[in-house]
Amino acid sequence: MKQTLWEAYPILFGGDYNPEQWPEATWETDMEMLAQAHVNSATINVFSWALLEPQEGTYDFSMLDKIINLLQKHNFQIVMATSTAALPAWMVKQYPDVTRVDTHGIRQGFGKRHNACPNSPNFQRLAQDLVTAIAKRYAHNSNIVCWHISNEYGGQCYCDNCAQDFRNWLQKRYGTIAALNQAWDTNIWSHTFHSFDEIVPPDQHTDEFENGGAMLGGESLDYRRFQSDSLLANFKLEKDIIRATDQKTPITTNFMGTQKDLDYFKWAKELDVVSWDNYPSFDTPASFTAMNHDLMYGLKQAPFMLMEQTPSQQNWQPYNALKDPGEFRMLSYQAMAHGANTVQVFQLKQSRNGCESLHGSIISHVNSTETRVFKESAQIGQELAGLPADLLTSKKQADVAIIFDWASFWAIDFALGPSVRLDYVQQVHAYYQYFYSKNIAVDMISVDDDFSQYRLVIAPTLFVLRNETATKINEYVHTGGNFVTNAMSGLVDEEDNVHLNGYFKLLQPALGLWAEEWDVLPPVSTCEVNFNGHLTTKANIVCDLLHLDTATPLATYQTDRFYNGTPAVTANRYGTGQGFLVGTYLDEGGMQHLGDLLVTAAGLTSADQPTGVELSHRYSDKYQYDFLINTTAQARTYRYEAGAKATDLLTNHPVKSGELTLAPYAVKIIQQPMI
Amino acid sequence: MKQTLWEAYPILFGGDYNPEQWPEATWETDMEMLAQAHVNSATINVFSWALLEPQEGTYDFSMLDKIINLLQKHNFQIVMATSTAALPAWMVKQYPDVTRVDTHGIRQGFGKRHNACPNSPNFQRLAQDLVTAIAKRYAHNSNIVCWHISNEYGGQCYCDNCAQDFRNWLQKRYGTIAALNQAWDTNIWSHTFHSFDEIVPPDQHTDEFENGGAMLGGESLDYRRFQSDSLLANFKLEKDIIRATDQKTPITTNFMGTQKDLDYFKWAKELDVVSWDNYPSFDTPASFTAMNHDLMYGLKQAPFMLMEQTPSQQNWQPYNALKDPGEFRMLSYQAMAHGANTVQVFQLKQSRNGCESLHGSIISHVNSTETRVFKESAQIGQELAGLPADLLTSKKQADVAIIFDWASFWAIDFALGPSVRLDYVQQVHAYYQYFYSKNIAVDMISVDDDFSQYRLVIAPTLFVLRNETATKINEYVHTGGNFVTNAMSGLVDEEDNVHLNGYFKLLQPALGLWAEEWDVLPPVSTCEVNFNGHLTTKANIVCDLLHLDTATPLATYQTDRFYNGTPAVTANRYGTGQGFLVGTYLDEGGMQHLGDLLVTAAGLTSADQPTGVELSHRYSDKYQYDFLINTTAQARTYRYEAGAKATDLLTNHPVKSGELTLAPYAVKIIQQPMI
Amino acid sequence: MKQTLWEAYPILFGGDYNPEQWPEATWETDMEMLAQAHVNSATINVFSWALLEPQEGTYDFSMLDKIINLLQKHNFQIVMATSTAALPAWMVKQYPDVTRVDTHGIRQGFGKRHNACPNSPNFQRLAQDLVTAIAKRYAHNSNIVCWHISNEYGGQCYCDNCAQDFRNWLQKRYGTIAALNQAWDTNIWSHTFHSFDEIVPPDQHTDEFENGGAMLGGESLDYRRFQSDSLLANFKLEKDIIRATDQKTPITTNFMGTQKDLDYFKWAKELDVVSWDNYPSFDTPASFTAMNHDLMYGLKQAPFMLMEQTPSQQNWQPYNALKDPGEFRMLSYQAMAHGANTVQVFQLKQSRNGCESLHGSIISHVNSTETRVFKESAQIGQELAGLPADLLTSKKQADVAIIFDWASFWAIDFALGPSVRLDYVQQVHAYYQYFYSKNIAVDMISVDDDFSQYRLVIAPTLFVLRNETATKINEYVHTGGNFVTNAMSGLVDEEDNVHLNGYFKLLQPALGLWAEEWDVLPPVSTCEVNFNGHLTTKANIVCDLLHLDTATPLATYQTDRFYNGTPAVTANRYGTGQGFLVGTYLDEGGMQHLGDLLVTAAGLTSADQPTGVELSHRYSDKYQYDFLINTTAQARTYRYEAGAKATDLLTNHPVKSGELTLAPYAVKIIQQPMI
C-alpha cells in the first residue's frame, strides 16, 4: 500500500526551513539561492503551533499556505511536520497540565520545547484537533513526500496524569497487584503495594536517588517503558489521523541515535521510515558516527533518512568547532554508506535569533551563495542529483551483529553499583570500533532479531537477559554461531531480578562457565589481562571471577589481588559453535587482540587499512556500491581491489585496482555490477 | 534489671535476614546453609511495615510469625527490628505529612526509606500503634535477644510540623524571645524576632546558603540539635512501648560511626547497647575504621554490637572493590579488638532486586555453601563459637583520649570561612592516626566525660567551647594533665558566639598564649612548620598568629609571609601539667614528630611496628586479650612480647615471645592471665 | 543645589558600624578606640528593619536615636542607611509575596537578605512607610553626610507580581504584541504571543536552560533589563522620599564592580555619588582591582566612595587569606589613585555571630587597639587626615577608553554557543591589563559616552551593537580615532537579533572587512597567531575567518586547519583614523604585542616599569597628584621623573627625579603644581 520514499523520488537534499521567521519579501530570494545549491526539498511546520492556532479551536493556515505555495512553485518536495513539538503560550496558560512535572515534583511553565506531558488529556485533545485540521487541509498535497510527526521525542514527566496512566499501564501488564509485587520484589524496604492506586512515579523525590539510581529496578524500568510508550502513543495518535486521510505518504519522526529515553526498536515498528539527526562533536570518532548510522539502519534493517545535520557547526556543544572543508560532504556520504537515502540539514537558512541562531546552515547569516559552506552544499546537491536511483534500492550486508539493548542501557544506569565508570554506549562502541577499524560490516540488532544469519553475534554488557533470549543464544551457538559477551551481561531479568545460581548461568551452555563474584577496579588499579603471553593490557571497571566448566582460557588476570592468574577471557566449544566471554573491560589494544581472535574464529575477512579510511558496501539487485571514505583531515593512500567495470559515481571515471590516493575527506562511490 | 546481651548468650554471629523477599520454599534451605556457616542469629523485620499493616489499623503478622517460627525451630537468636524505618505507600497517600520536606521546601513523596518526618503526628501515632502491636505479640519470645528500633536514623525535615515543634523546643530552651535574640545575636541582618511564631526552620530557601553555610550559627545549630532530638524522641517513643512489656531485653538502634546528623553521645544514653554499621571503602585506612570503632565504644565506654558489615563488597560506593580473602575475617576481629562483642553482617542472603541487590552477603546470588565468601564466613562462625565467654566481659584501657564533638562538627560546617579545606572528621583522624600507628590505645570521648583518668587529652578543632569545658581543661592541666588542641579550637560558644578578647583566651591558663588572627593558606601555599630545626613540614589550611605569654615555641612558621619565624606549635607548663597548641594543620610527617613529643611529655609507652600491624588489648577480670592483626594484604613480621601461658585462642597454640610471622590479614587473639 | 560629599567635609574614614549587635555598655569604648584610629565616620542602620518596626506600622527608633546621639557626641559623620535590604520575619510571615521566587519557581521563605521581590506591592508600601518615617525623623541631622539606600542591590525574582509588571514593562517598551513578536523573533519554537498576558518570566522552569542559556535572547535580555529597572525603581522610591525632605545630602547605594545583575551605567544616573565595595581575593591581580575602580569612576566619570573593604580578611571566599601588613593601606590608596574620595571598611567592629563573624574589622575579636590591623588602620586614618582638600577636587585624565557593556555581558551568557570558555569580564580585563602594565590611564566607558575625547577606544567583545553605536564608531574613526574591537563583537542588536550580511558589517567602514564564519577552539587546540614573524602566540576560544576589503593583516593564523595563513589581526585606515580587529582571543604575550602596536598607532606615551608598580594620576585645577604604588610584597625600584616642587604628601618630603626604592606595598602621593 504505502510506497517508500525512495521509490518515487530522487534523493532528497534539503532540510528544515522556517520562512515564518523571516519577512515574506525574502522568501523568493531564499528559493533562488537554495535552487543554486540543488536543494530539492524542505522540512517545514516543525514549530508553528502558536501561529497555526492563535487561540483554542481557531486555526489560521494563511502563513503555512503561503509557504507551501512557495515551495510548490519552486518544485520543492515537502517533509511536512505537525507542529506539536512546542506548545503555544496560551495553551500552557489555559491548561497548566499540558507541561511536564520534573523529577523534583515541580510543574514546568511555558517555554522551550519538547515539554508536553504525553498523558495530558488536554494536550492529547488539542494535538489531535490540530493534526486533524492539518491532515484535512494538506494530506493530498502532491509535494508532501513525508510526514514528520512532532520532533526529537524524549524525556519524562512525573505528573498526576502520568501517575494515573502508569497505574493503568501496570494493571494491564501485571493483571494483579500480587503479580506486580512479585515481579518488582516489593517486600524490599516496605514497598509492598496493596492496590495499584498506591503506586507513584519513581523520581528523585520518591524512589530514585540523586545519582539516578533506582530503589526498585523493576519499577523504574517499567516507568521508562511506560514513558517511552506514552510518547509513542502520542506519535501513533497523530500518525493514525494522518493515515486515515493519506494512505500512501510515509510517516516518520526524527530519532537521535544512541539516546537513552526511547526504545527505538519498539518505536521503529510504528514508523514507515526511520529518520535521524546526526550531530557529531569535534572529537567524536568516525566509528561512533558510523555505529549510530548502523543502529538507525538496524532498527528496521532498512535505509533511513538523514533528517538533520549541520553543514558547518553546532552551537549547543561545549566547543562548537567548524567542520573542515569537505567534512560536511564526507559526513553526508558516510551516512549514505551506512544506509541513509536522504541528505538533509538543520537548517536551510540560519535563524537570526533564538537559541539556535549560532547553529550553521546552508544559507548563513552572510545570506550569500558565495560562502564556503554554501558552495560545498551546492557541490553535494549537484552530486546527489547525479546518483542513480538504483543506489536507493541497495542495502547493507553483514556477517557480524552487535546487540544494542535499551533495557540494559536503562538498567545499568539504574543499578547502584558496581562502578561509576560503567558507560553502556561507550562499551558497545568499544566492540563496534574494532570491526569498523577492519572495514568489517556490522549490523546493529536487538535481542529480538534473528541471529542465525550472522557468523558472529556480540552482546556487550547485555545486563538484562530474558530466558528466551538466553535460549536463543545457546541455540545459536549450538548450531554453529560464534557468540561473544562480557562482564555485567546476563545479570537480571526484565524486572531487574538477578538470575541466581551463578552469574552467566543462563548462558552456561554457550559459554561453558559461570562467575562467582566480581572485583571492581578503582581508577588507580594496576590489574592487567595477559593473553597467554602474547599481549598484556589493562583491565578496567570490573573483573569477573570465573569458574570454567568446558571453557578454556584465552587470557588471564595479572594482578596483585588474589585472583591473579585466573581466567579473564575464555572460549567454549558448544555444538558446532563457540561462545566467548570477556570477564572485564579491555582497552583499545586489548580489543584489537580480542577482535583478531574473533575474526579468525568466525572466519571473517579482515583487512588492515590506513587509520580513518572507511570502506563500506551497499548492494542492490544489480550493483555493488563501495563507499571509500577518508574520514580524516590528512591525505591517505588505500590499496583498493576493483572489479571489472568499477566506476566512481562522483567523477564518472573508471576505477582500477591499486593504490588510490585519498585527499582529506575524500569520498569515492564505486559502482560495480553484481557478479 | 536489664541483662546485657553478652552475659546471657554466646557471641552473636549473624545479620540481617529478609526471607519475606523469597519464596517460603527456600527458607529451610537458607537455614541449613546458614547453620553450616555457624550463623546463630538473624536480624529481622527491619523493613516490613507495609506487610505488617496492609491498611491502617489492620495488622497481618502471618509472615512474621512464620519467620520467627522458622528461626526458633533452628535455634537462631533474633535481633528484632520494629519496621518503622520505611513507610508503607498507603500511609504516604493517606497522610502526606508523614514524609519530609527538603531543604528547598519540597515535600517528598512515597519512596526510598529513612524519610519519615519525625514530628508528624500521623507518623508518630501510626508508629506507636505498630510497635505496640509488635511488642504485645513478640515481647516474650525467648529467642529475641535484642530489639533494633527503626534503622540508621539521620537526616533533617523542614516541614510545618517541624517548624511548630522547633518553636516549642526553642521556647523550652530559651524561655523568652528576648533570651533567644540575645543567644543568637539576631540584630544581625534584621533577624530580630518579636515572637516565637516568627521563627522558621533554617534551610536553603530561608537562612542557609547553597554551600551549607548558616546565616545565624545559633539558629542552625539549634535546628540540628532539635532534629537530632526529634529523631531521638521517635526512638524513645518506640523504646518506651517495648520496655513497658519487656523489661529485660536490651534495646538498640544501629549507628553509623562519624556520621554528622546525630549527636551520638546524647543518643547513647538512651540505648542499652550501642550497635553500628561498618562500611569501609577500598581506600579507607585501617586507622579510620579503628577510630570509628573506638568512637562507638566511647559513646558508653562499653562493648558494642557490630550490627552490619559486608562479607564481600558494598554496592553504593563509587568503586565497590571486593574484599580480599581474609579481609572480612580480619575486619571482624579488628572490630572485636576495639570492643565489638558481636559479628553481624548485612545481609545473610543477598537480595535479588532493589537498590542493594549488588551488595555482598554470606549466601550470595550463587546460592551455594561452596563460594569463597561462604567458606570464609563459616570459618569465622566456627572460630567465634570457640571463643570464651570471658572475652565478652573484657574492656578497653587507654591513657590517651581524643575528644569528638558533634557541636563543633556542625558549627565548622555552618561557618562561612576560614577555608573550604577544613574537614572536621579528617582532622580528628589525623591525631588518632598517630597513636594508632604506635599501638597506643585511645579512648574517644565527649567534652562531658571525665578527663582525669587520662595522661593525655586531645581536642582537635574543638570549635565550640563552653565555659565549663574550658574550666575543666584548665583544671585538668593544672592538676597534671597533658592537653593538646589546635587551630580553630575554642572559637565560639554553644550558640556560635565568638569568645572575645583573643582567640584561645578561655584556655589561656592551660596554653599560656592567645592568638590575634589567622592566615588562610590557599592550596598553592608554601608555608611550612619548622620544629626547631629537627623537621620541616607543610602547614595547611590556616596558621594562627600567636602571642605567647608563658608558652614556649616547639616549632615556628617558615614562610615568605610576614609571620615567618613566629610560633606555630607551643608547649606551656601550668600547674603540674602541660598545654600544647598546634596553630595549624600538620601533614603526616608533622603529626609523627608532634606525636613523639607528646608521647614523651605524657610518659606514654610507644612501640614502632611494621606498617599496618595493629596490636590492641582488652582486659577482663581474669585475662588480658591481645589482638594482633595484620591489616594489610602483605605478610609482616612482628616482635611480640608474650607473658607466661599466652595462648592464641584461634589456634589454641601457646605463643612465645619473638618474631611472629603474620600472613596477609592474619589475626591472633592471645589470651594471657592478668598478673 | 546638592553639594558633593567632598566639598563640605574632610576625607571620610570609617565604615559599617552595628552597635545594635552589642551591649550599650560597650559603645563608648568603641568610640574611644575608633577615635584613636582617626575614624571620623560610620555607616549605620543598614540592617535594622526588624528593630525599627517591630510590627507593621509601629516604629521604635529608640535604639537608632541612641546610636545617632552617640555618633554625634563623638563628632562622627554618618552615612545613613535605610534598612530595607533585609526583611523582618513578621513581614514574610504576614505577606509571603515580599520574598522572591527563584528560577525553579520556588518561593523563598524568611531568611538571609537582599531577597525582597522588587515588584511586591507589600514590600514597596512597607519600604515607603519605613523610609518616610526615617526621613522625617533624621533628614535634618547635620551629621548625616550621605544617604545609603538599601544595600548591594542585585538578583532576580520570577514571581507572579514580577510577571505582571514585566508584561506592563513590555507593553510600554513595544506598544503592541506584534512589535514584541517582531523584536524577539518569536516565530521560533512556537513562541508567537497573541497577547501580553501570555508572557511569563524566562527562568529555568520556563525559557532558560540549566546552563543559563536563553531560548529567546530578546526575552531574557528584556527580563534582565526589567529586573534591573525594578530594583532601580525601589531605589528611586526611597530616594524620592528622602529628597523630598532633604534637598542637599548626597544619596547613594553601594555597587559591586563588575557584577552582572545591574546595568550600573543606567543606575549611576540616579545616584548623586557612586560608591562601591572592593573585595579582591588573594589571587586577584592588582590590574583587576584597578579596572573595577576605573569602572566605578567611569559610571559618572567622577570620584566615588570606597564604601566597603576589609582591613584584614574576607570570610566568604574559598581561601580567605590575610592581607599582608601594608596591603590594606596600599589598597586604600590604590582606590584613591583611581578616584576614591573616601576610605571605608566593612566593618568598624567585628561581629561575634552571624555569617560575617569571621570577616576582619578595624576592632577585631581581640577588642584592642594594639592589634596589627588596628595600628595599620590608625596609620591610614592619620595620613588621610593630613591630605589636602584639593586632592578631593582632582580628577582622572585618560587618552584611552575601554567600553564596558552590560547588555553584551548578559547576551553572551545567554547565548548557546560558541564556546563555554568565553568570559566577558575576563576578556575586558585582558585589554585593560595591558594598559595598566604600561601605566597608561584608561577610562571605562559605556557605548553611550562620547568617544571623541580619546585617542584610542577599545570595545572588547561588544556582542550587542546598536546601529547608532556603529555609526558613532565609524564616525569616530573617520575623524581620526583609533578603534579596536575583537571576536564576537557587533554580532547582535539590542534584542539579540544577529546583524546579517557578514559579521562586523555594521563596522565595515571602520574595520575594512567582514567575517564569514568562525572556528571554535577546544582547549586542546594548537592554533596560533603569527604577528608577521615577530611573535607567535596562542589563539583562544574562537577564530574569525575574515574577508579583508581595505584592511591589512597585522597577524595571521598558524594552524593545521584550513584557514592557516588567513588574517587574524587587522588594521584599516578610514578617514584620518584606524580601525583594528582582533579576530580571536590572545594570551598575555599576544596582548603585549598588540598593545604596543596600538600605543604606537595612537601616539600614546608608554613606559616600561617593574612588575606590580602602578603610577596613576589625578589632576585638580592647581595640582597634579601622582600615586606611585608598589602593589607587591617585594621591594621594587622605580625611575621617577619629578617636576619642581614635587612633594610626597604622606611624608611631606620633597621628591626628586631618580631611582626610588619602594618597599613592599609602599605608596607615595606626590603633589606637584600644574604647569
UniProtKB/TrEMBL annotation, chains A, B, C:
Residues 16-385 form the Glycoside hydrolase family 42 N-terminal domain. Its EC number is 3.2.1.23. It is an enzyme of class 3 (hydrolase). Substrate binds at residues 113, 151, 316. Residues 612-671 form the Beta-galactosidase C-terminal domain. It comes from the Bacteria. GO terms for molecular function: beta-galactosidase activity; metal ion binding. It catalyses: Hydrolysis of terminal non-reducing beta-D-galactose residues in beta-D-galactosides. The keyword Hydrolase applies. The active site is at 152 (proton donor), 308 (nucleophile). InterPro entries: Beta_galactosidase_C (IPR013739), Beta_galactosidase_Trimer (IPR013738), Class_I_gatase-like (IPR029062), GH (IPR017853), Glyco_hydro_42 (IPR003476), Glyco_hydro_42_N (IPR013529), Glyco_hydro_b (IPR013780). This is Beta-galactosidase. It comes from Lactiplantibacillus fabifermentans DSM 21115. The lineage of its organism: Bacteria, Bacillati, Bacillota, Bacilli, Lactobacillales.
